């Protein structure tokens, strides 16, 4: 981490470049004022914020892929206790520094870890943020299965998507002879990026919107709002179909090194 003691906020922020989150610091300094996406992620937060309680005292939040902590700070300001994780040490250093600047360090715990490691941590959180991570993962469905176990009340989900309709066909059992339907525009699907996209080799997958909704349904998550482009707000659906039965549960347990369901 850069040495920031004795530096102005502007100089300290400059010493920790590059920034992906454009934080607005107390002295008016912005950490990424020339961001290619504009005032990011403030404009995304403005879409989601009205759907969350103004007073989140007593809420627990898990911020997956927290980056420099923008969302964690906003939720901590509303009274939530936040656990924020990221695999990138540079971003976590930025986040920890900014938390001290904002006076929020006591409300947020930052951890360096992969999303898959959440499988080894017990318990749920009232709100889980899974924003801008899914498409960066080599194993996105495994990650979502793990994340689903952590959702208490709400999941905020965001991913890069490719063009396509919001809703696709819910075919209960597609015959092999009709597999030509898989290439229809509305069919839930994800494109695989073999090398790189937008200069980023971690952009592995790009689903269409109907794929996102289908994937969420298979983990018993009900979409309750679409706050903005490529953003879904979900809640656990007790009546939803979680997975495809015992075969899935056995596969999931094996992937995580857990005992098979039923002790088999």
UniProtKB/TrEMBL annotation:
Matches recorded under Pfam families: Methyltransf_9
A molecular-function term among this protein's GO annotations: methyltransferase activity
InterPro entries: Meth_Rta_06860, Mo5U34_MeTrfas-like, SAM-dependent_MTases_sf
Highest taxon in the source lineage: Bacteria
Keywords: Methyltransferase, Transferase
Transmembrane regions listed in the UniProt entry: none
GO biological process, one term: methylation
CDD domains per the UniProt record, alphabetical: AdoMet_MTases (cd02440)
Cleavable signal peptide: none
Protein name per UniProt: Methyltransferase type 12
Lineage of the organism: Bacteria, Pseudomonadati, Thermodesulfobacteriota, Desulfovibrionia, Desulfovibrionales
